[in-house]
Amino acid sequence: MTRGKPSDFWSRRKARVAEAERAEVAARTDLTEAEDHARIEALPDDEALAELNLPDPDTLKMGDDFTGFMRRAVPERLRRRALRQLWTSNPVLACVDGLNDYDDDYRIVEVSGADMKTAYQVGRGFVQKVLEPEPDTPKADDLQPDDATETPEDALVHAPEATQEPAQVSDTRHTHVIHESDTPEPAFVAPRRRMRFAFEDAQGPNPQDTTT
Questions:
Q1: Number of domains forming the structure of the chain
Q2: Number of alpha carbons in the 13 Å side-chain half-sphere of residue 71
Q3: pLDDT tens for residues 49-59?
Q4: pTM above 0.90, yes or no
Q5: Phi, psi (5° rounding) for residue 121?
C-alpha cells in the first residue's frame, strides 16, 4: 500500500480552506445585501431613489435608461413604477393588439369560449358514445309480412291441385351403359430412337456411320 505524497495532502487542505473562505464571504455579502434591501425598502420613495442614485421613474421618457431599476437592491414598488412608465412611453409596447404571447394569462385553466363543449373526459377519453345504449332497430322477423307466418303445411293445403299426367316410359332398348374407369388412360409415348451403324467390307474404303 503506497501513501500519497505530502504535497497532495497539503494541496487538498489548502483548497478546502479557500473554499470555506469563499463561502463565508458570499454569506456575508448576502447578509449585507439583505440588510441594505430591508433598510431601503423602509425608506420613502424619494429617499430610496436618492440612496440608489436613480431618477424619478415618472419623469422618464422614451429613450431613457431603465436598466438601473432592474437591480436587486431596488424595491419592488419602484421597479414596477419604472416598468409602467416604460410601457406608456414606448408606443410599440403601449399598443396592445392581442397578438403578443405574453398577453394571455396561462395560469388560468379554462377553455377559450364559454359555449364550447367536448365529449372528452380526462383519463377516460371519448367514452360517452360507447356507454350510450344503441337505438332499438327492428329485427328481421319484424320486417317480414304477415303472409310469411304461413307454414309449409298450409301452403300445401291451399295450393291448386296439379293435373296428373301419365309418366313417360323411356325406351331403354338401345341404351348402353358405359362404365368409365377412374384410372386415366396412359398417354402416348413416342418410341425411343436408337443409333444404327452399317459396316462395309474391311478391304473397302473407311467405314461410314449412319444414324437413323
A1: 1
A2: 13
A3: 988 899 999 99
A4: no
A5: -120, 135
- Residue 191 forms part of a structural domain: no
C-alpha cell at 142: 319484424
**Position 210 in a domain:** no
**Quick check: 107 and 82 in contact, CB under 8 A?**
no
Classify residue 174: in a domain, yes or no.
Answer: no
What does the alpha-carbon distance between residue 112 and residue 118 come to, in Å, rounded to a whole number?
12
DSSP for residue 192: P
Joined together, the cell numbers standing for residue 171 give: 325406351
Q: Is 19 helix (H, G, I), strand (E, B) or coil?
A: helix
Which residues neighbour 94 within 8 Å (Cβ) at sequence distance 6 or greater? 87, 88
Residue 202 in domain: no
Task: Return the residue matching grid coordinates 307454414.
Answer: 151
Give the model confidence (pLDDT) of 131-159 as tens digits. 666 666 666 555 555 555 555 555 555 55
- Of 90, 46, 54, 50, residue with least CA distance to 71: 54
Range of the domain at 82: 7-97
What distance in Å separates the CA atoms of residue 36 and residue 43, rounded to the nearest whole number?
Answer: 11
Torsion angle of C-alpha atoms 13, 19, 23, 26, degrees rounded to 10: 140
